[in-house]
Design goal:
The protein has seven helices and ten strands. By secondary structure, the chain is of the alpha+beta class. Helix 4 crosses helix 7. The two termini are 34 Å apart. 39% of the residues are buried. The structure holds zinc ion. The site of zinc ion has 7 residues, from loops. The site of zinc ion (ZN) has 7 residues, from loops.
Length: 288
Amino acid sequence: MPELPEVETIRRDLEPLVVGRRITGVEVDPGTLRLLAGVPLETLRAGLIGRTIRSLGRRGKYLLFELDDGRWFVVHLRMTGRLVWRERSAPPEPFERAVIQFDDGHDLRWSDIRKFGTWRLHASAAEVIERLGPEPIDADLTPRQFRAVLAGRTAPVKAVLLDQRRFAGLGNIYVDEALYAARVRPDTPAGELSAAAADRLFRACREVLERGIAHRGASFRDYVDGQGNEGRQHMFVQVFRRTGKPCYACGTPIERIIVGGRATHFCPRCQKRARRRAGAPRETRRAG
Ligand code: ZN
């Protein structure tokens, strides 16, 4: 599933191509009208055709196309959505379901095998952003603010990191990688992390997201960038989908458990459970 680094890569690819371009057509396959979340296709057409893209932003995993009438066209790729820039004469993409046509003879082609993606029109970007927590890579997010979100929560720390209302942009791949880098066991209750462990986790979240962007995203299955090419981040993962393979740090086989309903990968030796803070508060011990 595309997470912050994948969506940001697409945004950076598409921004110079779509900004200033006028939308001349919108087509959606009748079998995929779920994309519009109940809004009639004619309503979307009326809202988009003739509009010029003023900017292309992103928040969390949402792409935010600002239109010249002040409204926002908001795209979420969900599980398998792809948005690829092509010349109008190019052959259809695999599993192509919808297209937005532009005045310079190019299309944005939408493919989505699982059909969970969404296209929506919003009166303001705030309608989307207000529901989301801060991004770990926000320049003004402090370690103290990060710790405050975890504090007092009994849910597994992984579940808190995945909850877009707490933090925006993280998904299964980058959460597993950040917890490994921070040496925090994924099923540790969030409120039981020591301040030192929470600070390590904050830095790790930033680092894995920034590295993911630098590697243009992770292409385990369906993700491609705005030009249809795969990213490279999947070649650098430490634990994600490495079940049974040796930890790069200690050689212990990586384990797979379910946390918060999601497949979760971790090293049982490097990521020991934090000690409860009864009595002397203790740092999560490093193995070895
Ligand atoms: Zn290990």
